[in-house]
Specification:
By secondary structure, the protein is α/β, with parallel strands linked by helices. It contains twelve helices and seven strands. It is about 45% helix and about 20% strand.
Length: about 280
Amino acid sequence: MITPRTPPSRERVAHHYDELDPLYRRLWGEHLHHGLWRSGRESPASATLRLLDEVAARAALRPGMAVCDVGAGYGATARYLAQRLGAHVTALTLSSAQAAYARAQPLASGAPPPRYLLRDWLDNGLPDAAFDAVLALESTEHMPLAPCLREVYRVLKPGGRFVACVWLAREGAGALEVRALLEPICREGRLVGLCSLREYGAALERAGFAVKRADDVSPLVRRTWGVVLGRLAWGLLTRGELWAYLLGAGHLERPFGVTVLRLWLAYRTGALRYGIFSAVRP
């Protein structure tokens, strides 16, 4: 597992998303996750929703199910699942900026309103065996994995499904890849660490899950960072406030502007991988 020298605190993770809130919404919109390009001809918006459809299918979601979204960002996944599938979604985030945005968004008539919680997943206060499915789209990397998965197991009903989309490191990543790409991505992205596909699957099994699928889909998602890099470049050409932010001495998260380039390079070299895991609580 690739780890930063100093693991981020929950406060630092929350600050990362609060401070970068305007930048994230400009570069990604309200969906803070990769897109899935199966044909290669999808628009970024279509690819983003395609990933959500893949997650919903792997979780075997049906109307009326109780679903928990761990690290829910701006609540876009929760709203999509409520509107498309009639799911009853509880969505958790550490970021006060994200929670405020999510609570302000309208919902289609007749869809079950998501419940948005400003809460730490490791101290979530949710009842045991309360959910038919738990989803984590690129959020478990911000937490120590063992206690994170224990909480997922605890709140799932027996037979319930856990689907996680996860940033991963290449198995046996080289020293230069770690030093120049993966460790800085952890540090600047406020990640606790990057597992390999095998390590993450083993962690699920140690937590008591039966792993049903573990797929490396890196070639299908890496176009995301070309899109983001292009949007960042255009923003730097057209919006002076972006330069003001990136050059501002008081902004703790400004190195993330460089991290976008690291992420693009890490996918191009294969050092950074992307996995989708499906597991069941027996």
